[in-house]
Design a protein that fits this description.
The complex is a heterodimer of chains A (413) and B (424).
Chain A lengths: L4 H4 L9 H18 L3 H6 L1 H15 L22 H14 L1 H18 L6 H11 L7 E4 L4 E2 L6 E2 L2 E2 L3 E5 L2 E9 L10 E7 L5 E7 L5 E7 L9 E11 L4 E3 L1 H36 L1 E2 L3 E2 L4 H29 L1 H5 L3 H35 L5 H16 L5 H12 L5
Parallel strand pairs in A: 1-7
Antiparallel strand pairs in A: 3-4, 5-6, 6-10, 7-8, 8-11, 9-10, 12-13
Chain B lengths: L17 H15 L17 H11 L22 H15 L1 H18 L6 H12 L7 E3 L8 H4 L1 H4 L7 E5 L2 E9 L10 E7 L10 E7 L5 E3 L15 E10 L9 H7 L1 H30 E3 L2 E2 L4 H30 L11 H29 L10 H13 L3 H14 L5
The chains are: A alpha+beta (413), B alpha+beta (424).
Bound molecules: flavin-adenine dinucleotide (FAD).
Flavin-adenine dinucleotide sits at the interface of chains B and A.
Chain lengths: 413, 424
């Protein structure tokens, strides 16, 4: 494609400072040079190249430490003013490879709960920062509430079951939970960030080192997409963690969801953008009815328009969310629940939009869209995986309930 | 509802073959395919698991000979009054287990139908090919090699283009056809098939259907080269690849019927393919229901089973409703096929029948794509998990929407038929 995607899928660049723009440009270079232009080689040797490409991005370019505060050895993108910048980076990585991006999104979302200027947890930063500012590639995994099991009364976070729990023991906390399903990366994870039941104070977030005694991983799970973020169920047998590894309260969990909705939205939108590029090439080279270029057929053009529209609008919504996070007072009098609700609505809408865009776009690609060689199908699988995992359980129903609670003060749903 | 079998289908449409045959096939698939299907994706290249399953189904159970007349060792189904409905039943059962397997089997019948269904029967060719399929216990596959590198939709768009875009050529040289061309993507290519049905042109660029030829080419002839299987998003049990024909010579009587008649006989493959596609989809949807039923009964939101929450019930209720409607429509499409020239409609090869059946397939595939997408979302963290099977069907069935000219061709044929469009 010989057109610049930035000029097609616009977003308010003035929300990004000079530094953010140059980091984004660096990531774009990585995406184009390391992955997009070497798709064949990358696809055929994916398992081996995946860690190598991640290393380049996370360690050589340094994205692993990007959001850590400077005093903890990071690059200092730890203020909410950096939100649009972080979103842009996720879109850029997602454009190249949603699996690399999904790990990064989870990492930034987790770090956002402890390292931002307004919520910095110094002790936890002191524990985790050396790992993330170090020279080894780090892979955290996130365990969120989701479906409960019939016949068991579970503690809840907004209707979703909390299947893990912490209780206080001498010297810290013990974390327990059986066959918990991380979003992705459970098999590789060196740190688990687990939303747990925390007793009287409601839900909490526990940080469990992957190598702690009592952490047991199940077999690798085969999934639709994001195959490089190999997943596995995890069981915690009363795993001991220090006191400072637990953050308590609804607000922290809500914040985690807010970031996850934003950043995974960025990953999917990035993947959608690259899908757009692939489809665009196809529409300019494929001829139908023996003579008409695909994009010049009115029916195909209307499907192409649908694809572009879904991606363009998803991107705008995400930047609005980034702005809402950056300036909560201007948008929402700093109301926590409002940010949470908007993040859920936008997160869900963005995933549905990008999934729909790719689903429709594939209609125009015939068999090529279905062949691994064209790479379109990978985006389709990856984005669908992110979308269904992010919704947690029961499709859009839980997000609808969150929304109804906020807008209509429902109390019994 | 007690069982997925209770999804609606018009009872009076059910063929005499149905009850016993369905039971045999289902029992076999539940034993030999369902327990292994989660491993099929990784077996896409070698077919080490898939091939033995086909041997039993097609060779030992004998499905591959079912179309052939009894005097040639077959079951005589091609000339029964219920070939579409039996095919529907078979493809639905296969689709419930694995749609890739379903298409590999159904496509074996596809080129053979061109010479077996009244009014287009070619006894000499039937006799010629019967031993290949009827005298063995090993699976034998055939392929219908339509799609070419420059596009598959146009070749199926016979109503508008009359074969004008076909580049694979057939030249008569004495009493032999000499075939040259490049086909790609046919089901059962990638080295699997022993026989190809090849749509060709006898005059490049012509849209006169007299210049369309359907010629049979055994895969082991000199000049036939097959590439390896492509790696795809799903449908691992079906191999697809390139086939090159370079000065391949076949006897002149390997042409199905002759000028004009070939196009007509070929055109009936469209409704057959579309009916089978509907069956693959409704079969997979029955399995979606089974797997979803388990999840929504055993998992909770707000500490109540998912299915007991009104908002979630609305989503799964819609899914089940769609399955029900699609199954009725699929059987209706099969019946349109079986009624052929009788009171219901027009000849199988008329724009009327082709348009209506394409229309049903388009509707059913859209609903299936939507239902499977929703199904994965209901499973949430487990939606992309191979162990729940829904994601595999989601990957597999997308292709059913895309093949045979894709969605847009279905829409255009419907518009052409219902609105008498003249330029589309
Ligand atoms: C698993 C699998 C099994 C297959 N089995 C077979 C088989 O058995 N035999 C075989 O020959 N092929 C087979 N195919 C190929 C398949 O049928 C073709 O890919 C399909 O027909 C579309 O052709 P194409 O990919 O060349 O796309 P194109 O023909 O290039 O079409 C691309 C897109 O253009 C648009 N388009 C085309 N025509 C029109 C129109 N008139 N108006 C508006 N839009 C239009 C549609 O959106 C279409 O999707 C199979 C493919 C797969 C993946």
């Amino acid at each position: 494609m010989n057109r610049n995607v930035d000029e097609l899928f616009v977003y308010p660049k003035q929300w990004m400072d000079e530094e953010s723009r140059s980091v984004a440009a660096l990531v774009r270079q990585w995406a184009d040079r390391e992955i997009i232009s070497k798709r064949m080689e990358y696809r055929e040797n994916y398992a081996a190249l995946f860690p190598e490409k991640r290393k380049k991005l996370c360690l050589d370019i340094g994205l692993q430490r990007l959001t850590l505060p400077v005093e903890h050895g990071g690059f200092g993108w730890s203020g909410i003013a950096n939100t649009p910048g972080i979103l842009t980076i996720l879109c850029e990585i997602g454009r190249a490879d949603a699996a690399v991006a999904a790990i990064a999104a989870v990492k930034y979302a987790i770090l956002a709960t402890i390292s931002l200027d307004h919520n910095r947890d110094r002790k936890l930063c002191e524990t985790l920062a050396p790992l993330y500012a170090g020279d080894d590639l780090r892979t955290p995994a996130l365990i969120l509430p989701g479906a409960g099991m019939s016949g068991q009364e579970s503690p809840l976070f907004r209707g979703r079951a909390l299947l893990a729990g912490v209780h206080s023991v001498k010297g810290g906390y013990a974390v327990s939970g059986t066959n918990l399903r991380p979003l992705f990366g459970g098999h590789l994870a060196d740190l688990f960030c687990v939303v747990c039941e925390g007793g009287k104070e409601g839900p909490c977030i526990a940080f469990v080192p992957g190598d702690a005694a009592g952490v047991e991983r199940g077999p690798q799970i085969l999934t639709t997409g994001l195959n490089a973020c190999v997943n596995a169920d995890v069981t915690f047998h009363d795993v001991l963690i220090p006191k400072e590894n637990v953050i308590k309260g609804d607000a922290a969990v809500e914040e985690l969801y807010v970031w996850l909705n934003l950043l995974l939205g960025g990953v999917s939108t990035g993947a959608g953008t690259n899908f757009f590029e692939i489809l665009s090439d196809w529409s300019e080279t494929r001829v139908i009815k023996g003579r008409t270029m695909l994009k010049e057929n009115p029916l195909c053009a209307s499907v192409l328009a649908d694809v572009a529209e879904e991606i363009a609008l998803a991107k705008l919504l995400l930047y609005d969310l980034a702005e809402l996070i950056t300036r909560p007072e201007e948008w929402s009098n700093g109301n926590h629940k409002r940010v949470f609700t908007y993040a859920s609505m936008i997160g869900s809408r963005v995933q549905q939009s990008v999934t729909r865009a790719i689903n429709r776009g594939l209609e125009l690609m015939g068999s090529a869209g279905y062949a691994k060689e064209w790479h379109a199908e990978k985006h389709w699988r990856d984005v669908k995986t992110i979308g269904s995992i992010l919704c947690g359980v029961a499709a859009e129903a839980p997000v609808k309930m969150d929304t109804a609670r906020f807008f209509y003060n429902c109390t019994e749903i | 509802m007690k069982h997925f079998d209770e999804f609606s289908r018009p009872e009076e449409y059910i063929s005499p073959f149905d009850r016993h045959f369905r039971h045999v096939i289902r029992t076999y698939l539940e034993k030999e395919v369902v327990p292994y299907r989660r491993k099929y994706d990784e077996d896409w290249k070698g077919h080490l698991l898939i091939e033995p399953a086909f041997d039993k189904l097609m060779g030992e159970l004998g499905l591959q000979k079912s179309l052939f007349p009894q005097e040639h060792g077959g079951w005589g189904l091609a000339n029964s009054d219920y070939v579409f409905r039996v095919a529907y039943m078979l493809c639905e059962e296969l689709g419930r287990a694995d749609t890739g397997m379903a298409v590999a089997l159904a496509v074996t019948f596809w080129p053979l139908l061109v010479i077996m269904v009244e009014p287009h029967v070619n006894d000499r060719l039937i006799k010629e090919f019967a031993p290949m399929f009827c005298n063995t216990k090993k699976a034998v596959f055939a392929a219908n090699a339509m799609t070419e590198p420059q596009g598959g939709s146009d070749i199926e768009n016979m109503g508008l283009l009359g074969g004008r875009t076909i580049r694979t050529s057939a030249r008569l040289d004495g009493d032999e056809w000499v075939i040259n061309g490049h086909k790609l993507w046919p089901t059962n290519s990638g080295g699997v098939s022993r026989l190809f049905g090849v749509p060709c042109t006898t005059k490049a660029g012509s849209n006169d259907t007299n210049d369309f030829a359907f010629i049979y080419v055994p895969a082991d002839l000199p000049g036939v080269t097959q590439g390896g299987a492509y790696e795809k998003a799903g449908m691992a049990a079906d191999k697809n690849g390139d086939i090159w024909f370079e000065d391949v010579r076949v006897p002149s009587w390997y042409r199905a019927h002759g000028p004009g008649k070939d196009a007509d006989a070929f055109y009936q493959l469209i409704p057959f393919g579309q009916v089978a596609s509907c069956a693959f989809l409704t079969g997979a949807m029955l399995n979606l229901y089974e797997r979803l039923y388990e999840f929504v009964s055993t998992r909770t939101y707000n500490n109540r089973p998912l299915k007991e929450n009104d908002a979630i019930a609305a989503i799964i209720g819609r899914i089940a409703g769609d399955i029900d409607i699609c199954r009725i429509l699929g059987h209706e499409a099969a019946m349109i096929g079986d009624r052929r020239n009788k009171p219901y409609g027009r000849p199988l090869t008329s724009e009327d029948v082709v348009g209506r059946v394409r229309n049903i397939k388009d509707f059913v595939s859209d609903r299936a794509v939507d239902c499977f997408g929703k199904g994965m979302d209901i499973l949430g963290h487990y939606g992309a998990d191979r162990d729940w099977d829904i994601e595999k069907h989601w990957r597999d069935i997308k292709m059913v929407q895309l093949w045979m000219g894709g969605k847009q061709l279905c829409q255009m044929e419907a518009a052409r038929y219902f609105f008498n469009c003249e330029t589309l």
